[in-house]
């Protein structure tokens, strides 16, 4: 090769292999050269050396190793050498050196130089002796086998049929053998051996990793396998196949670790048909024709619930994939434990089960359980029971002091009234259940009139729209359209006022849960009905004082809620529920204060305020029995329980717009330990 051509070709080789030094790049250029007839150069000759540079071959990596070759690929680098790499030139050099040294030994004998050359020998003999001795020393130190060291964090792929005879060391990164190696491979700490090819032997030292295949594959070993303590056999598997090591010799396992990983960690779509599971599968992961010696020290995986058990035979090791922990073993709340138990009963192949099985840590599993639990449904029941007070409060205002007259005002004979409602609330979370926020808007209208001087009778109807948004990672929300119809009566006996009322409401519930299980997302929706019925009564006694009228009161309400059965539309995470009934008995003791203030001689405003203690006399638990719609047993889900006690706060201002109309503005609040709800109302009364 002439210098200008060699220099230009070398520059291209160095550009192609930026991780090689000058000497290595030159070795690639030389060992891929060809003769003038196009044949591959096996060794340099005295006439033409290595021959003509062949850049096409050079781009595929070295053709021979002329000693120890350190391929140092940095992090993020991947390269493929596809030439058949030999050490033929070293073999020829060894033969030449062997012949030369045999001739030199004969010269030593014939010249009598076995013990050195005499000081009286001729200058020529002394020069010949020095040269021969130097060449013998050099030959004794010469390496006649090519060797490969893979270092650096990058990946090197060998695709050729490689016949170099020296050792192959993997000191860092990944060496993937997809072709073949005559050489035995030693994997040291920080290195990984992979590929689907053949190697001459395998030794994995402490910290070394053997990971057959480029995904799932088989590594053939034409010799023995030694997996030393601290080494790792990384097995990748799918429902139908796994990595394997197949050796023609023996396999000695001295407490090495086996790790498990799935080929496809992609979450199973929640709307997919039942899939083939890895649970219950057995894989032949190590086979040695001359026998298995020793055992693995451990089998580990990156999954919270998935692991393996090894069975040992004379010439093979089988890996059995099993669920190693119950789903509910990582649960920290009753809801999590309940849904975890139900999800496990779905069994292998179910998308929910499979995604939970592949959860990589307990915290992620608990997040999935929380989202699967459906705790929004008992929360909806609590909200509907709490919202029932809007009708009771509206009726109480109609039959209260402002209707029968306060501070000398008298009630009209007949009235039509309409009230706009607005409310918002927040329920704090507990350690084991999610909190939520609510809002309500609506309109109530009624007609009432005196059927006697001391008795008033009325009817009420209306519509309200409630919404609920649940937090703490449940990704659930609901809206409820409600239609109300009720009747009420009030009777006065002197300063004592007695009221009685009842109402029935029809609720249309539209709920949605955005569920994510192990990375798989799905939407679950339902539209179903509920009905609530309530009966309520109050006794109040008016005490006229200066400067205001006081009215201690006590009331009692019974609310019955019936929720129809439903089945969510969605995927494997969809839930179903049978019909559900809940009852609440609520009592309130309190005091109202009423005051009329004259704005002008003809204009007055009635002001009132109230403070009470509401006590829940019934079970405050908020729970419902749910089940996965696809299969499995039911489980009990809880939401935040209702407050046992709460402060009931109210304020109202009423202003006459003329002889026949009045406008009213009110506030009502229910302030408990966990539940806090605030409401406002604007109403108009017309008398006729």
TrEMBL record:
UniProt GO MF annotations: serine-type endopeptidase activity
Lineage top rank: taxon: Bacteria
The keyword Iron-sulfur is annotated on this UniProt entry: no
Ranges for domain Autotransporter: 409-688
GO biological process, any: proteolysis
SUPFAM superfamilies: Autotransporter, Pectin lyase-like, Subtilisin-like
Keywords for the protein's UniProt record, in alphabetical order: Signal
UniProt xrefs under Pfam families: Autotransporter, PATR, Peptidase_S8
Keyword Signal: yes
Gene Ontology annotations for the cellular component aspect, listed alphabetically: outer membrane
NCBIfam families tied to this protein: autotrans_barl, autotrns_rpt
Family membership noted in the UniProt record: Belongs to the peptidase S8 family.
PROSITE patterns: AUTOTRANSPORTER (PS51208), SUBTILASE (PS51892)
SMART domains associated with the record: Autotransporter (SM00869)
Name of the protein described by the UniProt record: Uncharacterized conserved protein
Transmembrane intervals: none
Gene3D superfamilies named in the record: Autotransporter beta-domain, Peptidase S8/S53 domain
